[in-house]
Task: inverse folding
């Protein structure tokens, strides 16, 4: 009896899992395996080009010639380059004015399209048209619209007797800036409008009814209900809008190539001109890299703006 | 507080008329429940009263004022919505004070009134919370608080309890009734649940397909339903209906399907041989030797009572007994309806025949 009680039970032989089996079956490692393809893509298509760009900005690489590390010489050179600073100014002006107007017009359109009106579905589809036309195509159209000789605007105004000679839309520095900003707004508004419309449609109609019964005028309904409930989506859509506008290239390149006298040169177009056309890869890369702090700043602002509002937090999800 | 008069109100959406001339007088301080199946137009009527829908024809007046063309915010009414419609970005206190803020009330005044309403509804500890952080019952109370703060002429409730679980619904029912007894504000309450209607109302309005089927106190509707629809709608489990004929010669009798004979206290005038629908509530059956033979199908004890499903003349009927009979499926029993509380309806029109 005592023997039986004391005798150790014969344990089934548990074989230690080999390291390879652990790698195959451990949940954490399994997650890692699944992430590997995505990581591969990100490293190859995002991290590597970005890293290469930054590296190039510290070299004097030219097309057809391997460069040497020259530390910050490219940046020092740019620091004293008035055209670079002009392009920074242009980019900031372009981004700020275009984004602000895109927001205002987009919000207005979204509110309009959210109302009940005839042909609503068709109007919504029409708003998207500028978005689906290829950028270069619309830029070419604008190029003609703003042509110095054949501009339809000049033609119309002349026939109305309002002006006596053609407006030099893309040849005058101020006009050129106005024109490219206008074209950018035309292209960018649909994105803002449709995204904000999607946001508006998540607001329960009963909130408006409750507010109406509470005595709110239509302005007060916007001010106290619509706007606060829309802020999270506004933050998202404006971040994207700012990033896209800041890095815009196609529209400018197709319409003005940065002219006249660099008045519409953005950092992206200047970078392209210096790096690809002039062949100074190092300098072009430095201009591109100089955009990073601005973009990071924009992302940081929206990051903090995007932090979930207190009212969105809660234990229960309805 | 005010009376409300709804006179011959019609509502059409395009060519489709959903309300066909509804008239409901509501006295000052009364708790009126509009009840009916979904699609009967009760919510539409409430929204017309609130000013959220136009009135196609007829008039609605609150107090002495016809409000057909009065803006919702000037009607001095407060509404509690089915989904509560709390502003998610405002705290409980801000939600409740919003209407006062819009009317430019001083912050002292707002605080005072919000605090008072919060005390009435036991919401004081929650004033700083956001709606997401509240339970269903608490949100419901905030929605009521928002209405109370305004001290309106009329409270409107649009199926306010349908998003709550069964237990909470019963508790809130009592709470709303208690609140009404305390504030005595005229209240119009819409529901599809006849139990809610029966338990809360001073006056029930049964609606069906855009018309008023019957108006009256809960017990009037229970005891003397004017037609077969009301009879079937009010009461749970629902009234049993059997089709057949009246025999007025000698002892008044109802002849049901497959030769079932059930006693009547008296036959309605000139009704011999008339096709009728015989209605008896489940709770008005007794077991008696002179009852009609029925075969038990299913027995459902609930503790306080026992529901028995049985075949009577081939038709399934429900009987409810408070006594604890021993029944088994397949047993034959003799069911006898209490002749003093049975109902006879015209088979064609569904109108009540006996008085």
Result:
């Amino acid at each position: 009896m005592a023997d039986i009680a004391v005798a150790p039970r014969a344990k089934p032989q548990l074989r230690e899992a080999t390291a390879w089996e652990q790698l195959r079956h451990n949940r954490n490692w399994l997650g890692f395996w699944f992430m590997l393809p995505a990581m591969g893509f990100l490293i190859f298509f995002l991290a590597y080009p970005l890293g290469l760009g930054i590296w190039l900005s510290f070299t004097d690489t030219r097309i057809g010639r391997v460069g040497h590390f020259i530390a910050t010489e490219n940046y020092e050179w740019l620091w004293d380059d008035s055209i670079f600073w002009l392009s920074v100014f242009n980019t900031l002006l372009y981004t700020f004015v275009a984004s602000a107007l895109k927001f205002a017009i987009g919000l207005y359109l979204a509110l309009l399209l959210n109302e009940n009106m005839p042909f609503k579905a068709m109007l919504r589809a029409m708003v998207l048209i500028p978005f689906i036309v290829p950028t270069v195509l619309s830029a070419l159209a604008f190029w003609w619209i703003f042509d110095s000789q054949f501009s339809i605007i000049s033609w119309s105004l002349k026939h109305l007797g309002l002006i006596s000679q053609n407006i030099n839309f893309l040849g005058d520095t101020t006009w050129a800036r106005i024109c490219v900003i206008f074209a950018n707004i035309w292209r960018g508004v649909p994105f803002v409008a449709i995204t904000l419309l999607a946001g508006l449609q998540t607001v329960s109609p009963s909130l408006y009814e409750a507010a109406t019964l509470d005595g709110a005028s239509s302005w007060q309904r916007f001010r106290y209900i619509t706007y606060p409930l829309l802020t999270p989506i506004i933050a998202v859509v404006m971040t994207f809008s700012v990033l896209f506008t800041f890095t815009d290239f196609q529209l400018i390149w197709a319409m003005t190539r940065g002219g006249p006298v660099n008045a519409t040169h953005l950092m992206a177009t200047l970078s392209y001109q210096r790096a690809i056309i002039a062949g100074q890869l190092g300098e072009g890369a430095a201009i591109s890299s100089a955009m990073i702090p601005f973009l990071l700043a924009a992302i940081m602002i929206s990051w903090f703006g995007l932090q979930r509002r207190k009212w969105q937090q809660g234990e229960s999800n309805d | 507080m005010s009376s409300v008069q709804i006179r011959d109100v019609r509502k059409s959406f395009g060519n489709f008329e959903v309300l066909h001339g509804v008239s409901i007088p509501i006295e000052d301080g009364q708790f009126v429940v509009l009840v009916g199946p979904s699609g009967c137009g009760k919510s539409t009527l409430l929204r017309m009263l609130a000013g959220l829908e136009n009135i196609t024809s007829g008039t609605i007046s609150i107090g002495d004022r016809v409000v057909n063309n009065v803006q919702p915010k000037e009607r001095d009414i407060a509404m509690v919505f089915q989904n509560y419609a709390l502003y998610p970005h405002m705290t409980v206190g801000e939600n409740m004070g919003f209407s006062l803020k819009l009317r430019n009330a001083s912050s002292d005044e707002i605080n005072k009134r919000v605090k008072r309403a919060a005390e009435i509804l036991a919401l004081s500890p929650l004033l700083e919370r956001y709606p997401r952080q509240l339970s269903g019952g608490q949100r419901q109370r905030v929605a009521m608080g928002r209405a109370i703060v305004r001290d309106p002429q009329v409270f409107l409730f649009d199926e306010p309890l349908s998003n709550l679980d069964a237990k909470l619904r019963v508790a809130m029912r009592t709470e709303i009734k208690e609140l009404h007894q305390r504030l005595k504000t005229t209240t119009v309450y819409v529901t599809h649940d006849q139990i809610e209607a029966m338990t809360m109302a001073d006056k029930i309005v049964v609606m069906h397909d855009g018309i008023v089927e019957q108006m009256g106190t809960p017990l009037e509707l229970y005891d003397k339903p004017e037609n077969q629809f009301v009879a079937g709608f009010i009461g749970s489990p629902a009234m049993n209906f059997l089709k057949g004929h009246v025999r007025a010669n000698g002892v008044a009798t109802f002849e049901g399907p497959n030769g079932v004979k059930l006693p009547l206290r008296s036959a309605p005038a000139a009704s011999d041989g008339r096709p009728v629908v015989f209605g008896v509530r489940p709770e008005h059956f007794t077991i008696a030797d002179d009852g009609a033979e029925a075969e038990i199908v299913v027995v459902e004890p609930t503790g306080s009572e026992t529901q028995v499903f049985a075949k009577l003349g081939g038709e399934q009927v429900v009987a409810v007994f408070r006594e604890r009979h021993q029944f088994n499926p397949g047993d034959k029993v003799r069911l006898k309806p209490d002749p003093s509380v049975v109902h006879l309806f015209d088979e064609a029109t569904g109108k009540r025949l006996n008085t």
